Amino acid sequence: MEWQAGQDRRAAALRGPGPKVTQAVHAAVETDAVVIGAGPVGLFQVFQLGLQGITAHLIDALPHAGGQCAELYGDKPIYDIPGVPVCTGRELVDLLLRQVAPFKPHWHLNTLVSALTPRSDGRVLLETSTGVRLLARCVFLAAGVGAFVPRTLKTAGIERFTGTQLHYQSLPPDLDLAGRHVVVHGGDEAAVAHAVELAGQGRAARVSLLHRRDLFQAPDALLQRLRQLREAGRIAVEAAQITGIITSTAGKRLTALQVVGAQESPRTLPVDVLLAVLGLSPRLGPIADWGLAMERKQLVVDTGTFRTNVAGIYAVGDVNTYPGKRKLILCGFHEATLAAFAAAEALKGGKVALQYTTTSARLHQLLGVAAAPTTQV
């Protein structure tokens, strides 16, 4: 089934690209480079740094690589990648992950950079939301239009249940749902898929899918499965909007949602676990507070090096601006290449010789490939 194949791809993406996600530590980890943003440009930045012999730590707010390309264009065609006539966003990310694999970046997924502080010795100290501290000789901001974070519910008082009864985008894998009523809130493919999966697993006592209308944006195969589960009484669809919450007497537990439909009186919907799947939105976040020169919420860079106004900090892709800037993936690839050369020369204190992956034995060794045999005449 086409829908199931898409689910398999999504599950593989959520498991991450393979490398182990770095766990929180207290002492600062010293490294040559940190790349913030694991979209296509961030991934290619890691590749170009690898060609210069520079190992990088890679940070992204999402639980998987791909950024905007995977989130907004996962199954949509892209036609302007050089040498690739057509591919989906997810396919492009898969290709880039294969390309970057020889350089074994240190992954920090589901992680935000909360602070970035240039030091007097020229290095940059980064602190993350997971407690990891990195001391880098150079930093590359490939954050696109910002970190993708879940859209949150604005219902008064509900935020205090985040992480216990309220979860965004996905449920913790070890969450005990036995005997519980799970309400999935959302109307797109991801919300429907979560509800269908939960009903199929049978882990919860009851599964409800809450959306303002009894109309969902999802592939036909997934909608057909939803209909089957509704008819079997394993999913209840609630066409309503949340207007408030009801809590226990002590206010420590969320017990029900106050909802109202288009043509009905307000009512209550019991809930033990609420999964809000409302999509993701980009936020520039603390980047604006790091003392970097900005113009219309974009970082100003020098086009010879793609360095910002702070030594050792570079910006590539949609996050930067300069005269003639075009927000295209292929332009970001060009910027990442020049930024890698500039950083390598800054770190090594001299000119870096241009080498070609076609002929350079050194690059072949870094890539882990055998040199092409030479033709004898």
Structure in words:
With 377 residues, the protein is of the alpha/beta class. The chain contains 8 helices and 22 strands. The strands form 6 sheets. Strands 1, 2, 5, 6, 7, 8 and 21 form a 7-stranded mixed sheet that branches. The chain has a 5-stranded parallel sheet with strand order 10-17-11-12-13, with helices on one face. A hairpin with an 8-residue loop joins strand 3 and strand 4. The longest helix is centred in the C-terminal third of the chain and has 20 residues. The N terminus is likely disordered.
Summarize the structure.
The protein has 377 residues and is an alpha/beta fold. It has eight helices and 22 strands.
Total beta-strand segments: 22
Low-confidence stretches: 1-25
Largest sheet: 7 strands, mixed
Please tally the helical runs, counting DSSP H or I stretches of 4 or more residues.
8
Mean pLDDT, all residues: 89
Structural class: alpha/beta
Order of helices and strands: HEHEHEEHEEEEEEEHEHEEEEEEEEEEHH
Radius of gyration: 24 Å
Strand residue content: 25-35%
Shape: elongated
